[in-house]
Design brief:
Layout lengths: L2 H24 L5 H28 L3 H29 L7 H25 L2 H15 L9
Helix pairs in contact: 1-2, 1-4, 2-3, 2-5, 3-4
Length: 149
């Protein structure tokens, strides 16, 4: 299975979680904080996989990938900033607006799905692909693994 497929599935899963949070906010549900915490933990694991496993391998390939990785990591920082705004609102018992968070995340994942991962997959060896897949599954399949970037 290509790395791209795993990451697209992961992006879809995160987007679904964000949609569920958005729906819950629109209904002023009682489980908003729980849904947010679950989304945040999963997003942190996702960014950990990208930054500590995938980007580390990509950086050793070509200079242009270093610049792309830097741009993607900058976007991760922007998304985390939006995440913190939402978390602060929730902690202050205010109704957060997740529009900016959702917009940034969708733009970011679309770029990765359509450009970054297809290009990366062409350059990965079978061993690199297997390593990324094994490490990703190890992290994603462990519900107690709350790695942070």
């Amino acid at each position: 299975m290509p790395v791209r497929n795993i990451m697209i599935q992961e992006h879809q899963r995160l987007n679904s979680m964000l949609d569920e949070l958005e729906w819950s906010l629109s209904k002023n549900s009682t489980n908003i904080k729980e849904l947010f915490d679950k989304f945040k933990a999963n997003l942190e694991k996702h960014f950990y996989i990208e930054e500590k496993i995938i980007f580390d391998i990509a950086v050793n390939m070509k200079q242009e990938d270093v610049e792309t990785n830097f741009d993607l990591m900058t976007e991760h920082g922007e998304i985390i900033s939006e995440l913190k705004k939402v978390e602060n609102d929730l902690n202050m018992n205010n109704m957060p607006d997740i529009t900016e968070l959702k917009d940034k995340l969708i733009k970011h994942t679309n770029f990765e799905d359509l450009f970054f991962y297809p290009r990366l997959q062409e350059k990965l060896s079978e061993q690199q692909t297997a390593f990324i897949i094994d490490k990703s599954r190890e992290i994603l399949d462990n519900p107690k693994d709350n790695r942070k970037t």
